[in-house]
Design brief:
Helix content is 32%, strand content 19%. The chain is of the alpha+beta class. The chain has 13 helices and 13 strands. Strand 9 and strand 10 form a beta hairpin. The protein has one domain: Jelly Rolls (Sandwich), CATH 2.60.120.330. The structure holds 2-oxoglutaric acid. The site of 2-oxoglutaric acid has 12 residues, from strand 6, strand 8, strand 12 and strand 13. One of its GO terms (cellular component) is cytoplasm. InterPro entries: DIOX_N (IPR026992), IPNS-like_FE2OG_OXY (IPR044861), IPNS-like_sf (IPR027443), Oxoglu/Fe-dep_dioxygenase_dom (IPR005123), Plant_2OG-oxidoreductases (IPR050295).
Length: 379
């Protein structure tokens, strides 16, 4: 350890009572505790975002230009080419950026603003929504899994279940919060349904001609219409020593697709060709990624990809992820159309209860849950 590191370690604020960490990073920040990163957030050297050991090996210096899918092309005469680009993006990256969608810049600005206002509320007002109950319609919290993480993430979050029945539970003290977020939830659900239909077509679940509907496609699209949607708003405060910690640890998302809105501040990194690469924000575009459920449903053709969030010293960051899947009560299974002699069924059936039981029983790590559903080791 260098003399500078020893000095830094000596002045580290370690007399913070554990309970303070559970109030969130923003609260610590507001209470002036953050001249250095407290030990609670310091990752082992091998897991840090940049270390002198791993820079040449697994951290790419340049940002990654993800494939871009033009939403209008999915709906018009260019659909066949757009489907091909979509299939390539899903197979090669598990991520793409969606542009030219029908959500207005004003609606996007309003949702980022209103989420920012929530995080700006006095701690006591935010704290009303603090719970470790993963089924709560509204959940304010910190880190990734607050009850299980040994090292905390530099992130606070607000999770909202998005069924219309849940909206009356959402924060009410912020003027038009409910209206703005409910409108945004409906709009992202529409995007999800259009993209999901295109993905089914790209997988051969639905034939190229709209007239040739298949029963499987009709059933699953009906389930998606009634499906689960969870909104996760993330707030990453500025960090005095961003090389020691992460805003979010490497993870994959549990659902079929996640539609992520990020503000103009970089932070999202995805694993691509065994390197961590930064996703360059495009104003008002959605970063869309494959979740574990779609990896299962597609029998591993489209894979969920590990991603993480780095923080910085200069600017706080806000992102809003909209996670979509089947209804919480439905079983997720491999599509029978994607099983044959060459491609035997690779994943066990699963459901939301199994996922909750799994993540409640251990520290969530990387793609552990998905790996626990594999029937045999597959690439
Ligand atoms: O903030 C981001 O860019 C990513 C958020 C994320 O991965 C998540 O909410 O699961």
């Amino acid at each position: 350890m260098s003399p500078a590191m020893v000095m830094n370690d000596q002045r580290r604020e370690d007399d913070i009572p554990e309970i303070q960490y559970h109030k969130g990073v923003k609260h610590l920040f507001e209470n002036g505790h953050l001249q250095t990163v407290p030990r609670k957030y310091i990752l082992p050297a091998s897991d840090r975002p940049t270390t002198s050991i791993d820079v040449p090996n697994n951290v790419a210096k340049q940002n990654l230009q993800l494939p871009i899918i033009d939403f209008a092309d999915l709906l018009g005469p260019n659909r066949p080419q757009a489907l091909q680009s979509l299939a390539n993006a899903c197979e090669q990256y598990g991520f793409f950026q969606l542009v030219n969608h029908c959500i207005s810049d004003d609606d996007i600005k309003s949702v980022i603003d209103v989420i920012g206002k929530f995080f700006d509320l006095p701690f006591e007002d935010r704290a009303k929504y603090m719970t470790t109950d993963m089924r709560a319609p509204v959940r304010y919290g910190t880190s990734f899994s607050q009850t299980k993480d040994t090292v905390f993430c530099w992130r606070d979050f607000l999770k909202l279940m998005c069924d219309a029945d849940y909206v009356p539970h959402w924060p009410s003290s912020l003027g038009d919060f409910r209206k703005v977020v409910a409108t945004y939830a409906e709009e992202t659900k529409h995007l999800f349904l259009v993209i999901m239909e295109a993905i089914l077509e790209s997988l051969g679940i639905m034939e190229a001609s709209k007239e040739q509907k298949t029963e499987e496609k009709d059933n699953i699209m009906r389930d998606f219409s009634n499906g689960s949607q969870m909104m996760v708003a993330n707030f990453y405060p500025t960090c005095p020593e961003p090389d020691l910690t992460l805003g979010m640890h490497p993870h994959s998302d549990y659902g079929f697709l996640t539609l992520l809105l990020q503000d103009e501040v970089e932070g999202l990194q995805i694993q691509y060709q065994e390197k961590w690469v930064t996703v360059q924000p495009i104003p008002n575009a959605f970063v869309v990624n494959i979740g574990d459920h779609l990896e299962i449903y597609s029998n591993g053709k489209y894979k969920s990809v590990l991603h993480r969030v780095v923080v910085n010293e200069v600017k706080s960051r806000v992102s809003v992820a909209s996670l979509h899947s089947l209804p919480f009560t439905c079983t997720v299974r491999v599509s029978p159309k994607l099983i044959d002699e060459e491609n035997p069924k690779r994943y066990m059936d699963t459901d939301f209860e199994t996922f909750l039981a799994y993540v409640s029983s251990r520290e969530p790590k990387k793609k552990d849950f998905l790996n626990s559903r594999k029937l045999f080791t597959c690439t």
